[in-house]
Design a protein that fits this description.
Jelly Rolls; 16 strands; binds 2-oxoglutaric acid; single chain; 8-stranded mixed beta sheet; globular; 4-stranded antiparallel beta sheet; alpha+beta; binds fe (ii) ion; 6 helices
Amino acid sequence: MLRQHASPSSLGPGDKIGEGDSELVLNILPSDLAEIAFENMRKEVAWNVMYHRGGEVPRLVAVEGEVVADGSFPIYRHPADESPALHPFSPTVSLIREHVQKVLKHPVNHVLIQHYRSGADYISEHSDKTIDVVRGSRVVNVSLGAQRIMTLRLKRDGMDGREKGTPRPSQKIPLPHNSMFVLGLETNAKWLHAINHNKRPLHLKSPEEQFMNGERISLTFRHIGTFLTADESQIYGQGAKGKTRETAQPVVKGTEEATKLLEAFGKENQQSDFDWEAVYGEGSDVLHFTPRQ
Ligand SMILES: O=C(O)CCC(=O)C(=O)O
Ligand SMILES: [Fe+2]
């Protein structure tokens, strides 16, 4: 039985989350791996500062993925000025990936890893950008370290037809250490999600929030259908204009193409009935939005 709570209470395993295609899975990793994963990743992962509109994003990030035989690798495009360089899966992340795939029952070939260094680090409300996400697959966030809260909020246009002044439904899902939040694409289409900051002094927080000194690492695994060739000169696959390796096209940096894709991302953030085929179907060959000078 799925239970539906009033908006502000916390949801967890077994609850109807978002459109009902999302869920929280506890103890995703065996305890020996869960225990060492955080410290291992601190050392193994190539952490970067990432920029959005010229400012630093408030967390450290890294990208890893599966490099295929000819050296091509998956690319996930989202509105950052530059995507960090992709590295092959590091040893601990590889192990985590295996457990994720077993539960998810579909492959994942790309991960965005984020280090929330304290309660002051956060990710603003957004929908994941799905031009490069294999259609019908789900996105997962594995949480390690301090518990933070995933907040879902119905998109504004989802309120059409409801009485004026009705608050937008929102849901709070605490993400404990060693959990996996599965984001269904229907939920991603109709709701925004965020990890808001939690600036209460550490000593006033719950033991779960204080864990790992308030630091959290999340791993957002996706099944990506768009690829860059080894020398990063060409792009192909689901989200590109050339849909196969043979029809790969040169990547486009900046220019009107970039403005067009950024506008499409804006629409995906706002529209519950976002028409994927109409907006993304043709594909885009843009790589970086504000290329390095
Ligand atoms: O840190 C998280 O769990 C959320 C990350 C996220 O929403 C994203 O990278 O798109
Ligand atoms: Fe997200």
